[in-house]
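Let us work through a complete example step by step.
Step 1: write down the sequence.
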Amino acid sequence: MASDYVYQSGFGNTFQTEALDGVLPKGKNNPQRVALGLYAEQLSGSAFTASRKENFSTWFYRIKPSVAHGTFTEWKSHHPLAHGPLNRRPTPEQMRWSPRPFPEQPTDFIDGLMSVAAHGDGMGQTGAAVHLFHCNHPMAGRSFVNADGEMLILPQEGSLFVKTECGLLEGHPGEVFLIPRGMKFQVHPKEEKARGYICENYGAPFELPDLGPIGSNGLASARDFLAPVAYFEDLEEEHELITKFSGGLWKCSLDHSPYDVVAWHGNYAPFKYDLSLFNTIGTVSFDHPDPSIFTVLTSKSAVPGVANVDFVIFPPRWMVGEDTFRPPYYHRNIMSEYMGLIHGVYDAKEEGFLPGGGSLHNCMSAHGPDAETFKKASEADLRPEKIENTLAFMFESRSPWILTEEAEKAPFRQSNYLDCWKNLPKGFKGP
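Step 2: predict the structure and record it as tokens.
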């Protein structure tokens, strides 16, 4: 059996890994008889006839095939994850939330989910959703699989241990996990409690953005995305599998651990990525580029250059532009933005935007620095400055985020958010 937390490097690579020597077939994907009496099973994350660069699949060699399960029954139809298109209108009002409180009772990752906003749906294979999670209890005897989309998981407080069919992952605040659509997994807090954010992507799979004029180096490097090596459990025990399918949640029973993959090869795998390895690009003259230069991953839409959803970060970096207002300027744009803060202070909102909290600015809704930040930045001595001890992120989408009722009425929503711009002075002195 492979050691815990051993990784392979490279986003989109074709991997091959075995926990026991001699299991992987040599030269044949699906031999008549698999070594050690295992079953061959393919997990496809794309249509069979997709182009080679967009064709994703992995062969599993496992103790029992996934088809060995009990009858599906509906499970918690009103659970936060269980929705198709929200029967609500998006709002142009700017929203902000304080950190969501931790639960007092034992709560695992699935029971600790809260949906904030969404658009599109899994059946249409377009759009995305934003969720919060918190947990203080492991997913003992329970696993989850999302047939509607992939899940990008960002721990904000507390480290996580993630068990997948491909192997084991471990991550801390400042790292992210990418779980492919259709992959069974568990999430466990490694400490007393953990919480964070999730982007559920219904559209095209996340990929590294093209670099264009940046050239061959910069932003996130494929080699820094780590996939697990094969790890397996040979356990005969009761297990509950929760499946998200076409906006609904279903459960079925297993009589064995679903983490029984002794070997696998393919290019459809979970990853983790350390955001501190992101190579930030910036200006060395004047002004500052727009947030696109901070894109870690993108889910493309049918419109070139307009993302279904982008995952963007604002990490520590040097600010060196001359004669320049340094924080993000006041703006309106066609993209809709959900932002969160992992740690530290965001340079455009020095008060009120807290680690574990979030904000929502839908398309064409004006936003920018609060009054105090504007005053401070306008009077600052413009010399090279390093922004340190901070990490914010954004899920930026071409479609407006539709707020859930739970998020709109949450007691930790800041009903006075608009006040942060109330004291902006009128500086105009006329001709």
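Step 3: interpret the result. The first strand starts at residue 7 and ends at 9.
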